[in-house]
Structures are given as structure tokens and as C-alpha cells.
Amino acid sequence: MRYTSGMLWIAWKMLVGNRVKYLGIVFGVVFAALLIAQQSSIFCGLMSLTISQIRDVEGPEIWVMDGNVQFVDDIKPLADTELFRVKGVPGVDWAVRFYKGIVRARLEEGTYEQMILIGIDDATLVGSPEQVFMGSIAALRTPDAVIIDDAGYKRIWPGEPFRLGRVFEMNDHRAVVVGITKASRTFQSFPIVYTRYSQAVRFAPPERKVLSFVLAQPNPGVPADEVCRRIRAQTRLLALTKSQFTWKTIFYYLRKTGIPLNFGITVLLGFLVGTAIAGQTFYLFTVENIRQFGALKAMGTSNWTILLMVLFQGLQVGVVGYGVGVGLAALFGYASRSLSRLSFFMPWQVLVITAVAVFVIVMLASLLSVRKALVVDPAIVFRG
Questions:
Q1: Is residue 343 a contact partner of residue 50, using CB atoms and an 8 Å limit?
Q2: What phi, psi does 146 have (nearest 5°)?
Q3: What is the pLDDT of residues 125-172, one digit of tens each?
Q4: Quick one: which of 286, 277, 280 has its CA closest to 309?
Q5: Which of 15-29, 30-44, 66-80, 138-152 has the least mean pLDDT?
Q6: Measuring CA to CA, how many Å separate 363 from each of 18, 194, 275, 308?
Q7: 137 touches 179 (CB < 8 A)
Q8: Higher confidence at residue 367 or residue 146?
Q9: What is the helix (H) or strand (E) element at residue 6, kind and residue range?
Q10: For 154, phi and psi rounded to 5 degrees?
Q11: How far is CA 305 from the centre of its chain?
Q12: 237 close to 77: Cβ distance less than 8 angstroms
């Protein structure tokens, strides 16, 4: 054990002996870790935008929709009578209507703005926003009342303080702002307006069918998956739990858009460039220290010990490069979310993926350079 510790100490001193080469190897790993973590986090941030409105609806565990719906914004309206069919399914505790659509609003200044219109149940207000910081949800019961998200307010009335009572029009109907809430950003980045379902139907363009979703809750003790199965069997509608609908939406964007490919190419380039820089610099480092490796072999050091020393050097570089790279990526994310509206979300999975990628990079760089040290002739130490 003492012998091994001593050899690892020698390996560390050899690694940091040439600061320029050491920093060059670390730079390659930092670059790779930064790019992989940053791009993966931006990708996760974009995916979180696609499901934000599912996540923001608190309470109901089940979403019922047309069988051809592919993701949360793929609205295929249902007849209002579907609500009563869902309520009649055994195991359903309660069910309410839910409207979601895109409308065009006419502002007081005469300009127009696209908005996401959310219609919640009139009686229970299920689906209402949780973080209303000005006004109240109860105010939605007043005529023409709407609640708008703070980001949408700033977009429509930039530079103006929050104020209730502002008026605009949707579908030639008057809308009065009675509350302001904090809502998660959406993929479309339009202002979000909440109102009662009956009011939303008036604000929306006239259609024969207007019901977007039915939100339902299973009876206590009855699994949501089982209730979804019963709803599908009895009504021929698509019923999904909140988690299932979330993943259905994410998988749609993964399959049908170029987002994964674009970010995947960037991550791959970061991996390849990091491997190339670290590998080349590590190889030059090994060549420059070939006499030291020869001296160690002349003193009886085995090839396995030499291999362990080089892998230890790679691991040291990997730990430093990973820490600095991920730290810079997190700092970038914090700055981007504070100074701009760039989507950035770094879950623990991103940290694990980046760690695995960095481990592979340093192992490849180590193995590319170790052969020179393994085949060195110990007699090289005695040559001029």
C-alpha cells in the first residue's frame, strides 16, 4: 500500500511539473465538460418549457382528451357532453372542463397580441394559477375577469408597473385584468391568460366543439392508471395520468423536431474536441517524461504500475476539469436566467452524463498515451 501511494505521488508530481502541459490537458477536459453540461442543460430547459402547462395544473391526476392528441398543444376539441361520460366511469371521483387555445387580443392602443387562453372550471376553479401575487383567484367570478402572467404583462405593457383593471378585447369581448400571477414559461412564449371556462368560450373563436380536455380525479384508494384504463374502455377517449401526458409531450418533441439532433451534434463535438485536445496534450506530456518512466522501469517498476500511474494522472485531470467545467456551465446558466430569457435547467442526470463523458475522455486520453510509456526501453535513461 505504501509503495503504491508513493508511486501515485510521483505520478502527481510528474503531472504538475510542467504547468503549461498540465493546464493544456485540463483545458481540454474543461472545454468538453462545459459544452456537454451547458448544451444538455439548455436542452433540458427547452423540454421543460414544452410541459410547463401540464406541470402548472395542480390537483387532477388524470387528463382526458381526443385519441389523436399527440402533445399538450395539439388541441382536438371534444363535445361538452364528454364531461358527463367521464364522470360516469366507475372510479372517477370528480371531473371538470378545461379549455386551452390560442387567441388574438386587441389592446387599448389598437395593437394585437397572440395569447394562450386557459379556461378553468366555473364552479371549482380547478386549474387556476397557484402563484397569484396581485389580485385574487376569487376575482375570476366577476364578469369579464382574467388573470395574466407577469411575463406576459411585461411583454404587453413594457416598462409599466403592475396595475389591475387594465382592459383589452378578445373576439370583440371585453377582458379586465383582475389578477397577476407567476406562471412557468411556455414553449411558445405567448402571454398566458386565465379565465372561467364559460368566459373562455366567449373569448375564443366560435367552434362547434370547444372542450379541450377533461381533468379528472380518481376515487381515494383507486390507482389512477386503473381509472385511465376504465375511461379508455368506456368512452373511447385517451386518458393519461399527469406523468404519462408529460412524457407523451416530451417524446413528441424528441421524435418530431430537430431539437435532439441539433443539441446532440453540439455535445458530440464537445466530446470529440475535448478528447482530441486532452489526448494530444497527454501524449506530448508522456513523450516529454519518457526518461522518467524509463528510470522507473529500470528500478523494477512493472508495466501494471506504470499503467496505474498514467490512469491516476488522467483521473486527477478529469476531476479538476469536470469540477471547473460544470461550475462554469452552472455559472453561465445562472447568468443567462438572470440577464436573459434563455432556458436553462440542470438536473442531476446532466451532472451524471457529463461525469461519464469526462471519465471516458480522460481514459481514452490516458490509453492513447500510455503505450509509449509501457514499451520504453529502461536503457533510455543511460543514453545521452
A1: no
A2: -140, 155
A3: 998 888 888 999 999 999 999 999 998 999 888 888 999 999 999 988
A4: 286
A5: 15-29
A6: 20, 54, 9, 11
A7: yes
A8: 146
A9: helix 2-17
A10: -65, -30
A11: 43
A12: no
- Here the cell at position 339 is 440577464
pLDDT band at 318, cuts 50/70/90? confident
- Asked whether 320 and 22 are in contact (CB, 8 A), the reply is no
Residue 338 predicted with pLDDT over 70: no
Residue 7: its pLDDT value, please? Answer: 63
Give the DSSP per-residue string, 251-308.
HHHHHHSSHHHHHHHHHHHHHHHHHHHHHHHHHHHHHHTHHHHHHHHHTT--HHHHHH
Residues in the chain: 384
The grid coordinates of residue 170 equal 378578445
Quote the pTM value: 0.80
Quote the cell numbers at residue 192.
398566458
Q: Other CB atoms closer than 10 Å to residue 303's CB: what's the count?
A: 12
| 3-class secondary-structure state, position 31 | helix
Task: Measure the CA–CA gap between 98 and 380, rounded to whole angstroms.
Answer: 80
Check if the beta carbon of residue 105 is closer than 8 Å to that of residue 172: no
**300: CB partners within 8 A, 6+ apart:** none
Do residues 170 and 104 touch, judged by C-beta distance below 8 A? yes
Mean pLDDT of 210-238: 94
Is the predicted pLDDT of residue 75 greater than 60, yes or no? yes
What's the burial of 173, exposed, middle or buried (CB within 10 Å: 0-12/13-18/19+)?
exposed
Are the beta carbons of 185 and 52 closer than 8 angstroms? yes
Cα–Cα separations (whole angstroms), residue 173 to 125, 128, 145, 268, 364: 21, 21, 11, 52, 65
pLDDT classification of 381: cutoffs 50, 70, 90: very low
Query: Which letter, b or e, does each residue of 28-50 get, where b requires 16 or more Cβ atoms within 10 Å of its Cβ?
Result: bbbbbbbbbbbbbbbbbbbbbbb
Helix or strand (DSSP H, E) at 63: strand 62-65
Residue 308, pLDDT above cutoff 70: yes
d(CA 370, CA 361): 14
